[in-house]
């Protein structure tokens, strides 16, 4: 196989705001609409690479979009080499820091570049990376937020039915421990003992509260405790991981492979789940996932199920894919689910194409 040589011509970057079927209600905020930043990377050869970012805050597009344009302008007329471009972009921005907008902009362009290369090769991204298209075990993360516990049973049943799921994400961190315990038991009674419950505190606990609460819930048969405290309290997370029977999950807020490595060195978690926007897109993932694999740490995903599914097909210690349908409203062909697994389409690239009518309807000015 001879890989096509692609030359970056321009980028088109468009923010959209999609309504959520089930609003996000957590310790870090309440969102009934979700911002996405759509990226079209155009090449001189006519191939268009596509990706999107999920920056959480609508107003964040005001500074992320210009950063993407600046990075693309610096590369205009150059050959697309994502691994090399990742390093070049990082060096160009190190004076303002590797975290935050710097990495987010780099990641968005990186994912679009890999999509373009895979399209030019006529291969799914997973095959371009040496793997195969197929399916990936997924859990449903579309609901079970910090809402009233009375309706959690019906919602859990509906989430299972959305794709034959055998695992769900439940958010915890209510004011009273007893309410968290009640939420767990309502969901467990509704879906049965065989369904795995991953619980997420969304960084909502102080370290002292996390010590008390996680120990109190350690005998509930939960699959993992996710981000019980602020993501950068690695020392506190390491103590929790050491003391608890329930595994501790971290990683969605690690900016780049070195931050993941630092958490591994401190034994801050039992599982890790990088986020493509923060870890550095496909190139950042390809550098980070082998670090976890070398230590025998299982790797799950955070958001971006369409791109992440390809990467899970080539990740040695692939664990669980987090599935949400938040981007489906602007996708021309949403990915399919079967028996709790997301199916990677056997088509060139990542499989992302826009529904332009929906994009026009949901777009907004910055």
Task: Write out key terms for the chains shown.
alpha/beta, 366 residues, 5-stranded parallel sheet, globular
Describe the model.
With 366 residues, the protein is of the alpha/beta class. 38% of the residues lie in helices and 20% in strands. It has 13 helices and twelve strands. The chain has a five-stranded parallel beta sheet with strand order 5-6-7-8-9. Strands 10-4-12-11 form a four-stranded mixed beta sheet, covered by helices on one side. α8 links the parallel β7 and β8. α2 runs antiparallel to α3. The longest helix is centred in the first third of the chain and has 21 residues. The protein is globular and about 60 Å long. It starts with 7 loop residues before the first strand and ends with a helix. The mean pLDDT is 95.
């Amino acid at each position: 196989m001879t890989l096509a040589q692609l030359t970056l011509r321009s980028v088109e970057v468009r923010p959209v705001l999609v309504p959520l079927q089930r609003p996000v209600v957590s310790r870090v905020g309440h969102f009934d609409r979700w911002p996405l930043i759509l990226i079209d990377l155009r090449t001189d050869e006519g191939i268009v690479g596509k990706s999107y970012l999920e920056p959480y805050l609508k107003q964040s597009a005001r500074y992320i979009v210009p950063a993407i344009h600046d990075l693309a302008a610096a590369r205009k007329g150059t050959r697309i080499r994502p691994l090399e471009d990742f390093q070049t972009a990082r060096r160009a921005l190190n004076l303002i820091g590797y975290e935050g907008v710097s990495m987010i902009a780099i990641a968005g362009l990186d994912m679009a570049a890999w999509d373009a290369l895979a399209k030019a090769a006529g291969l799914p991204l997973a095959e371009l990376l040496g793997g195969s298209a197929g399916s990936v075990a997924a859990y449903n993360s579309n609901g079970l937020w910090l809402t009233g516990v009375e309706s959690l049973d019906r919602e859990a049943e509906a989430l299972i039915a959305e794709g034959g799921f055998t695992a769900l994400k439940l958010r915890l961190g209510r004011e009273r421990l007893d309410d968290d315990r009640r939420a767990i038991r309502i969901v467990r009674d509704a879906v049965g003992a065989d369904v795995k419950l991953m619980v997420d505190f969304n960084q909502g606990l102080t370290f002292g509260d996390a010590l008390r609460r996680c120990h109190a819930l350690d005998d509930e048969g939960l699959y993992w405790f996710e981000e019980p405290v602020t993501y950068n309290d690695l020392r506190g997370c390491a103590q929790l991981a050491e003391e608890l029977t329930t595994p501790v999950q971290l990683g969605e807020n690690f900016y780049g492979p070195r931050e993941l490595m630092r958490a591994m060195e401190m034994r801050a978690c039992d599982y890790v789940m990088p986020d493509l926007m923060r870890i550095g897109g496909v190139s950042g993932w390809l550098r980070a996932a082998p670090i976890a694999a070398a230590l025998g740490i299982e790797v799950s995903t955070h958001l971006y199920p369409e791109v992440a599914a390809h990467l899970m097909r080539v990740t040695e210690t692939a664990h669980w894919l987090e599935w949400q349908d938040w981007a489906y409203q602007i996708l021309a062909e949403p990915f399919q689910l079967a028996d709790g697994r997301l199916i990677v389409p056997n088509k060139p690239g990542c499989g992302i194409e826009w529904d332009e009518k929906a994009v026009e309807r949901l777009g907004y000015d910055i």
